[in-house]
Structures are given as structure tokens and as C-alpha cells.
Amino acid sequence: xxxxxxxxxxxxxxGVAQCLQRSGQLSAIYDVRAEAAGNVPGAPAMSATPRxxxxxxxxxxxxxxxxxxxxAVLDGPDGVxxxxxxxxxxxxxxxxxxxxxATSQKLCADAGxxxxxxxxxxxxxxxxNGLICLAGGSDADMAAAKxxxxxxxxxxxxxxxxxxxxxAKIARNTTYFxxxxxxxxxxxxxxxxxxxxxxxxxxxxxxxxxxxxxxGALAMMVRPDAAGNEQETAIRNYFMGLMIKxxxxxxxxxxxxxxxxxxxxxxxxxxLSTSGLEHxxxxxxxx
Length: 287
Description:
The protein is of the alpha/beta class. Helices cover 44% and strands 14% of the residues. The protein folds into 2 domains: 4-161, Rossmann fold (3-Layer(aba) Sandwich); 168-274, N-(1-d-carboxylethyl)-l-norvaline Dehydrogenase, domain 2. It has 10 helices and 7 strands. The protein is globular, with a radius of gyration of 20 Å.
């Protein structure tokens, strides 16, 4: 498996394409936004369709927004699977529901195509071979895809068989955004008493087995104030949109097992403050 084509050239896919371009493995790119090609200097000309991209690639990497977009780029006369390449591998980098993943897996299986579900983290480092990949697939499929993973990933954690990568990413998101909420509420106390948040990060660091390793919980709180700062407001709104999308997936998955996620529900209900877009000194008491 020598070449990879990337569908979706946003924050994740654009970075993955940059890495594969540097390694000499990038065969094709596709995005519904023509201007997105500018995210990957020196890349091949934009493919007209996902089908054309798949025809030019040993492996197809999909980094779109959600499950509906994933299914759309796989299926139909212009989709990846219409290239009719049994034995091809698709690496799905998007976070989608397990139901949408099952639909995608069936589409690929019916076409003789291997699908590796691969949740990713450390997105800001995607263009620097910094992605941490949580992959689900057989040992044989993971071994076959190793050259492509080596071309863009910082590390690959094989979480288990098909589906395990996506389930792990949903579980990780639930934990991560819970920490972000805890960071906001801890910062409320710190800010109101004049405690420096950078010093608080030091206090939260250290050995995870000894109660440390929590400094990331303040990641959004130590960023510049969003008030009057359009760029920072846009960054925080983007974060909030991804957070809500991913946590709604977590709620959907828990419901399949008859379980609620009260913390997740609360974070969604208080998404603005969790994202640092309102009430930096604390949400007011109910009157």
C-alpha cells in the first residue's frame, strides 16, 4: 500500500494531506470547497469526485464532518466505492455514530473494500505528523495499512477489531470534554481569588497515577479572552460546535444500552461557558 488520497481538507484532513505530500505518498485530494486545495501546497490537482480520487489511490482517507457526509462520499455513482477497486482500504478519520459506522462498514464490505475506523486526537498537530490514531481493524488490515499510517501519524494505538477505534474515540471525547467542564469550574474559583491559571496548570500536572496529569483541563481557560477578539471567538465557537457534535454522539451510543450520561447532558446545556464564551467568573446563581 503505497499511495493515499485524502477526502476533506479541513483541520484534520488538510494536515494529513500535508504529511503524505511530504512523504511522497499523496496521490489525490478532494473537498467540496475548491479553495481548500490551498491547504496543501504542491498537492496534485483536486479530483473532480471521490470516485476519481479512489481510482488514483491505494488507500482512501476520509476526514469529513459527520456520518451523513461519510456515507455520501462512499456511496453513489460518484462515490469512493464506485471506483470498483476490491481490496482497497479506506481509513475513516471522522468521528461518527456507531450506527453510521455500521452502514459505512456494510457499504465497504459489499464492495470488497476494507474499512479501518480511526478516531484521531491532537488535531492541531495534524500537519506535523502529530496525530494520535485510535484504530479499529484486524491485525492483517492494520499491518497492510502501516505504510500509510507511518506517512501521517505520530502514533497508532490499535484499540481492537472493527468498530473499536470509533468506540474508543467516542469514549475519549466523553472523558475529554468532561475535563474541559471541570477546568472551567475550577477556573471560576481560581479567577475569583486572583490565582494565576498558568500556575494552576503547574499544580495540576505531574504523575497521572498520583492525581496529576490534569493540566489539559485548563486548555480553553488559559487562552486569550474572547471578548472583543473575533479570531479567538471564532476558535472557541469552532471548539464548541465539535464538542456538541461529539457529545451528542456519546448520548446516542449510551442510549442504546439504556444508559443516560447526565454530565454530558449538562455540558451540552452549558456549552457556551464550557467553551469560554461567557461567564468567565462563573455562571450566576438562579434567582
